[in-house]
């Protein structure tokens, strides 16, 4: 069955006739500020010599006459895309404000429209659905394009902040709604004249302060619910006659994806090699086909860290790991981990509220045998949603202290195990997988011919509590995805990053032949100062191979996606489909990675409904991008590396070159020393 792909895009026409903008060199009253990249192409007609003066900004009232502002006729089709986008964003914002809708902006200044859910009945909150209307030009068509995306929902307190701060601190406030405006409380509170008219938007801090449970996780097909919401938004607003007077929409349906924009990875890119054959779905094949390489370490001893009242549960958990059940056969048979449980070295604590001192002492006093590889199973009394930060930090500090003792660890939430031991069997399948990988086993591998390539991945995690982005770089030296080592550093330190990337190349070359190519997977656009040390090292080592940089982004919301209208109503494009979403000369792609294959009749239940990821491919030597086969191979490699995630049997859509560093960067900043012990740089301890 062939695919019928459509973008979440509605197209519109630019005006044929010139329109008049009103401009001034100085700001007079309320006006829009235009940066110099947005100056009209014929700006010298109005302000002779302005290009030589080179001011950073001028000001405009756009199409409205205003005292002190001079008229200039513009053919929009000949103007900078940034200027046109600014103009239409301004018009869209004015339209939605005119019909009394909340309008905010996302981090790239696209309009985000908040639509109230009138059917939601709750005495404490009002619920809003958030939609982004992104303006772009001739990216995937010959027209102006409105990318309509759904960004999730928000809840707003019905009681004003004057009431809720009686029960919590203002430090917990972030965004508020005030007189039909979305404001950041701590940055814009000078605009709030009356706290009885300002309403807080629920965030994690307020959720914790008021003990509000998060919405239950929805495992249904997100493509269907997503499209249903944007369908309604488009029908009600974008296709209305009033909106068409503002933006001349020229088609009442989604934009079809041109066939010449669509590619597919090779079918064998889906293949994973297990001990007893080749499979595609780890959830099924790991159990049936067995791990490729069982645990490579001898004398593996497990022990427990637990509260005195957990003794019964520890006994039950040990029995499950040793003997399993009729379905899960235990660590050895299921995951190839032959382990001995040494209960003589268990660490037991009796303080539930503050367990760290006793656990830390137990780890410090732990007498390890150098001939034994130890694994600690810590039954944590605190779950991942623990509101108390000190209690939450226990998890990280226990992990750190065990690493200094060269001990691998696995944390299990006690309450999750206690509530339903039979259901916990499914958790144990993922835990067993992760333990095998931590113990130097290989659950599965890519079915590829070995090539002499160096692939370097750089990912990041933003700690919202500290508002710091931490960066870790992971290095994978083989094209089959085998992990080698990683370096970790914080605050996007350009110097350290450049050094780590250069070091990866330096360490690789002496023990290998000259690589066919060097590939960097980066979590954002790579800056010149970040890539320069790499080029210098390649020059120093006289490496003639090409360098490719792939910027890899998740597309959860606020962006372009595509639907397949020709597959059982489930809308999910086939796994391995990639779509060129850039104008000519740009190598930008959507890549779909899921469980729908050529012969899939219905999408597997309880599986991940992953949205696509976005790729942008560049190279310091642009001619290297002229090879279409090479571009496809680079996309296939991203696709394949996403299938090497060993923390869960669920299919992922982000490659481990990005995902593993992100996981490290989430944990390591919580360590007391802010460093990763040397032993931690040799193992996948973070799974």
Automatic annotation (TrEMBL):
Piwi domain boundaries: 373-673
**Highest taxon, organism lineage:** Bacteria
Q: Which family does it belong to?
A: Belongs to the argonaute family. Long pAgo subfamily.
Q: What is the recorded name of this protein?
A: Protein argonaute
Native organism is Mesonia mobilis
């Amino acid at each position: 069955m062939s695919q019928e792909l459509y973008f979440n895009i509605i197209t519109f026409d630019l005006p044929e006739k010139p329109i008049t903008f009103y401009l001034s060199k100085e700001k007079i009253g309320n006006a829009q500020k235009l940066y110099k990249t947005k100056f009209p192409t014929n700006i010298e007609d109005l302000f002779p010599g302005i290009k030589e003066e080179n001011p950073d900004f001028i000001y405009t009232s756009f199409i409205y006459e205003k005292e002190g502002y001079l008229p200039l006729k513009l053919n929009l089709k000949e103007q900078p895309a940034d200027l046109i986008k600014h103009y239409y964003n301004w018009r869209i914002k004015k339209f939605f404000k005119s019909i009394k809708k909340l309008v905010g902006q996302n981090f790239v200044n696209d309009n985000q429209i908040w639509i109230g859910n009138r059917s939601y009945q709750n005495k404490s909150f009002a619920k809003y659905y958030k939609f982004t209307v992104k303006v772009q030009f001739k990216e995937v068509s010959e027209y102006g394009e409105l990318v309509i995306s759904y960004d999730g929902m928000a809840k707003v307190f019905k009681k004003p902040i004057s009431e809720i701060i009686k029960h919590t601190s203002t430090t917990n406030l972030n965004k508020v709604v005030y007189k039909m405006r979305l404001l950041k409380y701590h940055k814009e509170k000078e605009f709030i004249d009356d706290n009885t008219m300002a309403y807080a938007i629920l965030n994690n801090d307020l959720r914790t302060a008021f003990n509000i449970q998060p919405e239950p996780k929805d495992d249904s097909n997100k493509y269907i619910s997503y499209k249903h919401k944007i369908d309604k938004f488009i029908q009600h607003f974008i296709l209305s006659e009033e909106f068409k007077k503002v933006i001349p929409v020229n088609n009442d349906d989604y934009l079809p994806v041109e066939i010449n924009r669509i590619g597919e990875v090779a079918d064998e890119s889906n293949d994973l090699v297990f001990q007893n054959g080749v499979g595609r779905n780890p959830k099924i094949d790991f159990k049936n086909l067995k791990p490729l390489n069982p645990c490579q370490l001898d004398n593996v001893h497990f022990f427990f860290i637990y509260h005195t009242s957990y003794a019964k549960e520890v006994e039950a958990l040990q029995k499950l790991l040793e003997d399993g059940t009729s379905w899960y056969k235990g660590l050895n048979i299921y995951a190839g981990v032959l382990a001995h449980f040494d209960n003589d070295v268990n660490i037991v604590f009796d303080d539930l509220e503050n367990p760290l001192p006793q656990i830390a002492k137990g780890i410090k006093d732990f007498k390890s045998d150098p001939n034994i590889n130890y694994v600690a199973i810590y039954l944590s009394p605190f779950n991942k949603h623990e509101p108390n930060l000190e209690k939450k930090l226990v998890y990280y500090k226990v992990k750190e202290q065990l690493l200094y003792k060269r001990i691998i660890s696995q944390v299990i939430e006690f309450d999750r195990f206690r509530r339903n031991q039979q259901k916990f069997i499914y958790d144990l399948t993922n835990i067993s997988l992760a333990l095998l990988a931590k113990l130097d086993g290989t659950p599965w591998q890519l079915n590829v011919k070995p090539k002499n390539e160096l692939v370097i991945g750089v990912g990041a995690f933003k700690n919202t509590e500290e508002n710091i982005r931490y960066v870790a770089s992971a290095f994978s030296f083989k094209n089959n995805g085998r992990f080698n080592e990683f370096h970790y550093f914080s605050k996007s330190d350009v110097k350290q990053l450049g050094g780590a990337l250069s070091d990866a190349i330096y360490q690789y070359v002496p023990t290998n032949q000259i690589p066919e190519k060097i590939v960097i997977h980066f979590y954002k656009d790579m800056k010149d100062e970040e890539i320069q040390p790499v080029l210098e090292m390649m020059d120093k080592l006289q490496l003639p191979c090409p360098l490719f940089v792939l910027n890899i982004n998740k597309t959860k919301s606020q962006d372009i996606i595509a639907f397949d209208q020709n597959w059982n109503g489930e809308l999910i494009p086939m796994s391995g489909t990639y779509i060129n979403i850039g104008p000519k000369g740009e190598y930008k792609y959507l890549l779909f990675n899921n469980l729908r294959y050529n012969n899939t009749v219905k999408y597997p239940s309880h599986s991940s409904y992953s949205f696509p990821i976005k790729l942008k491919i560049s190279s310091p030597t642009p001619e290297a991008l002229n090879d279409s086969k090479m571009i496809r191979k680079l996309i296939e490699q991203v696709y394949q590396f996403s299938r090497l995630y060993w923390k869960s049997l669920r299919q992922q859509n982000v490659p481990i070159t990005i995902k593993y560093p992100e996981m490290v960067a989430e944990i390591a900043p919580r360590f007391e020393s802010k460093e990763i012990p040397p032993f931690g740089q040799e193992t996948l301890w973070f799974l």
